[in-house]
């Protein structure tokens, strides 16, 4: 569209015909090269604007104005303005790639409506003013112009879908018949006049309503008291707005000419007045974590203020607020906490917190959730969205009463701040149903005053890939735009796809179930309508299924750390820092015998495949996702309760699908996708290989197809729960077969599983590490030795004068400290190692041997250190995880091929507690198995023989029969003596 977006370059304005004027005016008013996707709801056509449009800056405004009028008079000839425009429209289509030939006709009517030229100052009637401009005519065929305005608006939408630099025209609401039904568009598009704007701006400034969402009642009262100062046209649209207050919806009211003008002027008043805007943009955000609100200030750029500096946030955001303000002094609490505690704040900081201070003084601080799943402070009730609030005791009782009268509900808990409570689980739509204007203290709360924000389109859920969404079944977003009676997707090819009212029970709009997902790929525009009037619009783009597995990884600059084995935590410096495998086969783990294997079979778990696809799409396009986003994704995918989500997340990490990284400079836990890798170990004369990492369905399908074609044996692995994928597994006769498989799957080099004793130090050894204890870290929760869990108010916080405390601040990762008799014993930033250490000091076993080759947790949180857990995921027939993710009392388990491997794991952590391992020989297992199959006389198993078998830890692996054939009895005793000699 380069030609369409270019101004005429041939000739001077005095030689321009109407087509050149149309082109110049289109580029001037509707093309914005610097800030794409503009919306226009005002058209001020003055001599100065015409001069800028034509580029004739050496001419006076009046000269250029006369050139434009004369060109239009010559083009019209003897026809009326409306008939000439309609005639030209007959040879033009809405989907054409040329400027409408009637554009100058329409813009002339806007100029006539708001022209302050001397020749028109004394003429008030619109038609008479037009007669004066055109040197004749009476009615001017104006009834023919209304549909042309609507065609112009539609054409601009089409242009914008092809090139976002073309702005769209938001037409005001006008009646279908009667007064202003014919000339309403130019009158309202040109209202208010420049003079009315300045009068209104001054009025808003004097009454402290500038720079905020204007409250409806206050604005109506102000304009009504000063109505005599405004123009007749502005008074008319004001009267229409007052009448509409009695019958129109809030959405319709927000689109009226009067309110669009008021809101635009109110929010831009500081710019009109020439007030300097701060270069740094900030906002207050809230994180709802572990039952409490944590407040912090974010900003849009790196900056250093008086006593504070900004650091990048860990999670990727679509909003510009990607940095957090931190104090230069670790002993100083954060800015929001200082506000609540009435502490002194550095000079220069207060300006950023002024709106928050107002809300704090009034006793109500509102937060609304945005599309980054972040709750941000809002000074007014937004148009829609989920809300949370910090409510002061002075208004809490009245707010509860108002909620009760309106039959609204909210979850209310005690706040960390004295005299405040935390309110959750209510929406902006709920709050707008309550009339606070007559409710005592609440009527004076600024954030509860009725406003009319412009409707916006929000995209909820869906599989996001950067700024786009994945066009797959079950992955499309839900469109949320309150009050709309129609939502449509304008596709790149010009066709329209109507969305359907959502069937989820959450409101909004869904894409049709039979939509062609390939047709959605690309960038399109969502349009929302109310009574055929467009009320909102936004760009949305879709990409195809993600076939990429090169997930974006964190930087190796020393910023990130994760749970380790040789020590409690380790800084992330390379990809395999905690992986239980290496490329060196010399130190590889070898197992003499595995549990009998089953042939691999293809299983189709749709919720699990969808969850993996969603995560893969997110992690390919962005560098990590927050724990809150991951938890919500898994909860929604599997429909499991919150208490089951955290064990599921841990299982995904232990099975090698995700890495959990902690930011050393910020209280943030991010999850990154693990690259698919083939890991092998040797068993007898064969090699077993397991495909680890976040494996999307397409790669799993390719693995299952390649295994038999390369002469490999597919092995069936299982998972502990349906919310956890089983790792793909195969068996090869040679290393070359596995190397070829890695090449065919386009994976990194083949890796070899390491031995357990190379992966982790003992708990006692890890606790020998010493570093300065973190100071000024408040206690968040304490370990309850009765319930073996972290609690805010534990019933038994001390066991033998031993205590474990969970400490938290917002400017660093959580830490866990162990005290005995008030003295520090050890501290760590790893929750897993903190719990293991505390249980060890208290003499409580962290793990139980519950069955053959199985290790279960003694309490939630006492997991195997990550390298050992990932070793278990590779070697085990059933991956680590909760037995029943959705059941109450489900246990977390690690299952190994036999007791020998299980004991090696426990011996790595507790070498003193685990004695020498003795196992039943393969020949003994076969003899015991043959007891039930050998014919001939038999006797009950001798007591001496049964007692001798008890000395072996895995004797239960071989089923001991009740009777022994006499022909096998001597062989059993001989093999028992040989096994004992080999063990010792």
The order of strands across the largest sheet is 5-6-7-4-3-9-8-10-12-11
Low-confidence stretches: 271-277, 598-602, 885-889, 953-958
Structural class designation:
alpha+beta
Q: Which oligomerization state do the chains in this entry correspond to?
A: single chain
Number of helices: 30
**Count of separate structural domains:** 6
Major beta-sheet overview: 10 strands, antiparallel
Task: Determine the fraction of residues in helical runs and give it as a percent range.
Answer: 25-40%
Mean pLDDT: 82
- Overall morphology: elongated
Q: Got a strand count?
A: 45
Spatial gap, N to C terminus: 86 Å
Return Rg in Å.
36 Å
Could you tell me the strand content as a percent range?
15-25%
Describe this structure in words.
By secondary structure, this protein is α+β, with helices and mostly antiparallel strands. The chain folds into 6 domains: 13-172, no CATH class; 194-272, no CATH class; 282-448, no CATH class; 458-543, Immunoglobulin-like, CATH 2.60.40; 549-915, no CATH class; 922-983, no CATH class. It contains 30 helices and 45 strands. It has a 10-stranded antiparallel β-sheet with strand order 5-6-7-4-3-9-8-10-12-11. Strand 14 (464-465) and strand 15 form a beta hairpin. Helix 2 (47-54) crosses helix 3. The longest helix has 18 residues, at 966-983. The radius of gyration is 36 Å and the shape is elongated. It starts with 17 loop residues before the first helix and ends with a helix. 40% of the residues are buried. Residues 271-277, 598-602, 885-889 and 953-958 have low confidence and may be disordered.
